Amino acid sequence: MNIRPIEEGVVREFGDVGERVNLSYGAYLHLDELLSTQHPVSRPVHHDELLFIVQHQTSELWFKLVLHELRAVRDRLRADELRPALKGLARVKHIQRQLTEQWSVLATLTPSEYAEFRRFLGTSSGFQSYQYRAVEFVLGNKNAAMLDVFDHDEDAKALLRTLLDEPTVYDEFLHHLHRHGHAVPDAILQRDVTLPHSFTPELVPVFRRIYEHSRAHWEAYETCEELVDLEENFQLWRFRHLKTVERTIGAAWGTGGSSGVGFLRAALDLTFFPELYAVRTEIQA
Q1: pTM above 0.85, yes or no
Q2: Contact at 8 Å (CB) between 193 and 171?
Q3: Where are the alpha helices (DSSP H) in the chain?
């Protein structure tokens, strides 16, 4: 028979079993709660709305993990624990690939299918994802005006306020470089961390020295490249988001009031680590 027998040692009893408690897979993951949070709002319920909900809920779970890892990376850099920080960045890069590939699933939703339930979404929009904004904040794309979008959610606004007031991953890396003898400008070390990082030409020679003497500064050099990988992955995610939206709603306005594709396209010009790109031109000069 084409069947695999269940081994004798496989646990079959869960809950209180004598003097011990056997924890099941479903109980550990709270699957009863997790799988009961998909609530289509279309009437009658449209088949494809479940795809739309699961896609976005899954993304939010990954964003939760990305934020968890990036805050730990930032703390590791502050403590000059560079190797664990690099491990964290490597994990984030793998998560980013998952997030980017997910767009190919949502892209199977055709314009006519989406139109069947889009009107039921009201003013809800991915623009209102506070976890996405939190990730941007911890990487350096800070915008205090975004807090007003979350006046309706005290916890979300408090998280963003905290991250607005704290140094970014890039801030902590630059402080780490300063502590290890690199001539990071004082203006960078003392900058107002509530503002987005802006391109600082005086920082480019610091990175040029690291790149041109990579053997002597290997860990710093490796971290620079990991950060470039992270930003490139972020931009690829943004681009796939844009193209998925474009193929689904064209030039229509977003449900949350944004201009849709035009608004998403403008985000492609944002950069977290501008000097790490500028140094490439300097090296070729």
Answers
A1: yes
A2: yes
A3: 25-29, 31-34, 49-78, 82-106, 111-115, 130-139, 154-165, 169-179, 186-189, 204-212, 218-249, 261-267, 274-284
